[in-house]
Amino acid sequence: MRGLLLLCLFGTVLGNYSWNGPGQEAPTKPTSDNVCLTDTASCGCCLMQKQMHRMEGYFNMSLDELQRKVNRAQAALNNVRSSRSAFSVALTDTRRCVGPNRAGSPIVYEYVFLNLGDNYNRVDGVFTAPRAGVYSLALTVYSDSGAPGSLLMACANLRVNGADVAKLNDANDEDQEDSATAVLALQLAAGDRVSVYLPVGCSLCDNASHYNTFSGFLLYATD
Q1: How far is CA 177 from CA 81, 99, 107, 201, 218, in A?
Q2: Predicted confidence (pLDDT) per residue in 34-67, tens digit
Q3: Dist. CA 208–CA 92, nearest whole Å
Q4: Is 50 exceeded by the pLDDT of residue 11?
Q5: Quick check: pTM over 0.90?
C-alpha cells in the first residue's frame, strides 16, 4: 500500500512539470487529476474519478444512440401511419338501379364500409391516391335485367384520371342476372383519381346485399 502511495505521489510530482530539455523545467497548471492526488487517498480518488469520467462518456454515447434509434422508430411509425389508405364502398344500402342512360356518367357509391384516410369522396365517387405507390383495386358489377333476353347488361369501366384501365361487362341472354369482377394492382402517383364510369346501355342494380362494390387499398408506398 505504501509503495502504491509513493508511486502516486511520484506521478503527482512529475505531473506538475513539463520537460523542455536538459536543465529546463517549467511548472504546468494543476489539473483535476493532480489536485486529487494531494490527500493520502489520492490514488483511489484518481482512479475513481477517471472511472467516473469513462462511465459518464459511455452513458452519454449510449443515450445518444438510444435517442437516434427512437427517432428512427418514430419516423418509421409516422411513415406507416401516413401510408394507411383503404376504402370499400357499395352502390346502395336499399333497392336501387342506375342506368341505362343515353349518355355515360360517373357512378357514386353511396354505402361506405370503410374509408381509412378519407381518400374516397362520397360526393363524386372518386378515390384520390394520397401518395405514390402500388394499389390494389377491385370492382364488381351486377345487374338484374329482368326477363331473359333483355338488351340490358351489367357493365362499367374502372378509370384512372378519366382514362379506362379496365372494362367489365356481362350480358347473358339465358338468365336475368349479369355480373363481372376485376381485380388489379396499379402503380399510382400521389393525386391520381380513381373512379367508376357507367357507359351507355349499361345498368347496375343493388340492394342491402351489396352486389356492386368498389374497393382499394395501398399495398406499399414508393415515394
Answers
A1: 41, 15, 20, 15, 32
A2: 555 555 556 666 777 777 777 777 777 777 777 7
A3: 7
A4: no
A5: no
- Four-way CATH pick for 84-221: 2.60.120.40, 3.20.20.70, 3.40.50.1000, 3.40.50.150: 2.60.120.40
C-alpha span between 61 and 139 (Å, rounded)? 54
Query: What mean pLDDT, rounded, does the chain reach?
Result: 78
**Which of 189, 190, 181, 83 minimizes the C-alpha distance to 137?**
181
Q: How many CB atoms within 10 Å of residue 74?
A: 10
- If you search the block for the grid coordinates 343493388, which residue do you land on? 206
Rounded to whole angstroms, the Cα distance separating 215 from 88 reads: 4
Cis status of the peptide bond prior to 100, with omega within 30 of 0: yes
